[in-house]
């Protein structure tokens, strides 16, 4: 299946990583080819990708916010759970995973994936159904971070079980429930997986049951909750800081 990747950062990262097959690069005909756009066009030509000019209307039919280009590519290349585990074992550091329990909003998913890549997670696991998948909207929201990450589709409860057995990790569910512990009460500097729940319902009961600890972020203002993407991003940052 083919799809169109738009916006300069996602297109640039996709071409740089080369995990997909590429077919055509459309460039808006009245734009000056300079800066990042010049790098993209030169890379595409070096890789023998068909580079064609298109008008603004043609690009707008693909994506209203195209930023002057669109790259026709194969679908997102999901990894297997075995790939994630093998990659983590090759790293000279404790395991570090992000599990997403039925995140629905593509913007939230993209934001979490962008943070995950910046914080150096070894892999991300999402359900294969009932949740947002890695679409072009998610690639856009992640600023191309998806192209660098290993992302697997897998049953989360089964994934938690395998990660515990094969990597000896501690699993932290992120939730504001009563009895949850603050980050300073937990050991975040060893092998770990962070589980972020659904935007409205939080963690499913069986997923929660399989977490070793439930973590709650301290709050000092008047509202009683954080957006899932923001909360997950803060927790990933705290975990990365603890691993220094």
> How large is the count of helical segments?
9
CATH topology of the largest domain: Alpha/beta knot
Rg for CA atoms: 19 Å
What characteristic shape results from the CA principal axes?
elongated
Relevant CATH superfamily of the largest domain = SPOUT methyltransferase, trefoil knot domain
Q: Regarding CATH, which class of the largest domain?
A: Alpha Beta
Number of strands: 10
Helix/strand order, N-terminal first? EHEHEHEHEHEHEHEEHEH
How much beta, percentage-wise? 15-25%
The spatial strand order of the largest sheet comes to 7-6-5-9-8-10
Derived from helix and strand composition plus strand pairing, the structural class reads: alpha/beta
| Mean pLDDT across residues | 95
Specify the helix fraction band.
25-40%
């Amino acid at each position: 299946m083919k799809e169109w990747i738009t916006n300069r950062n996602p297109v640039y990262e996709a071409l740089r990583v080369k995990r997909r097959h590429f077919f055509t690069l459309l460039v808006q005909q009245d734009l000056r080819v300079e800066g990042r756009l010049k790098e993209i066009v030169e890379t595409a030509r070096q890789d023998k990708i068909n580079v064609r000019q298109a008008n603004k209307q043609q690009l707008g039919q693909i994506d209203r916010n195209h930023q002057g280009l669109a790259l026709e590519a194969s679908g997102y290349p999901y990894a297997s759970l075995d790939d994630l585990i093998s990659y983590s074992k090759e790293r000279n550091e404790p395991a570090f995973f992000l599990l997403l329990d039925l995140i629905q909003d593509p913007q939230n998913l993209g934001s979490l994936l962008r943070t995950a890549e910046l914080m150096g997670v070894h892999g991300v696991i999402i359900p294969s159904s009932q949740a947002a998948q890695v679409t072009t909207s998610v690639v856009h929201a992640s600023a191309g971070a998806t192209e660098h990450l290993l992302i697997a589709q897998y049953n989360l409860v089964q994934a938690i079980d395998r990660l515990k057995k094969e990597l000896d990790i501690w699993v932290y569910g992120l939730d504001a429930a009563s009895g949850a512990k603050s980050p300073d009460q937990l050991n975040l500097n060893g092998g770990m997986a962070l589980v972020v729940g659904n935007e409205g319902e939080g963690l499913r009961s069986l997923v929660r049951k399989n977490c070793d600890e439930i973590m709650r972020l301290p709050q000092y203002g008047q509202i009683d909750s954080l957006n899932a993407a923001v909360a997950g991003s803060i927790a990933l940052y705290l975990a990365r800081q603890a691993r220094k």
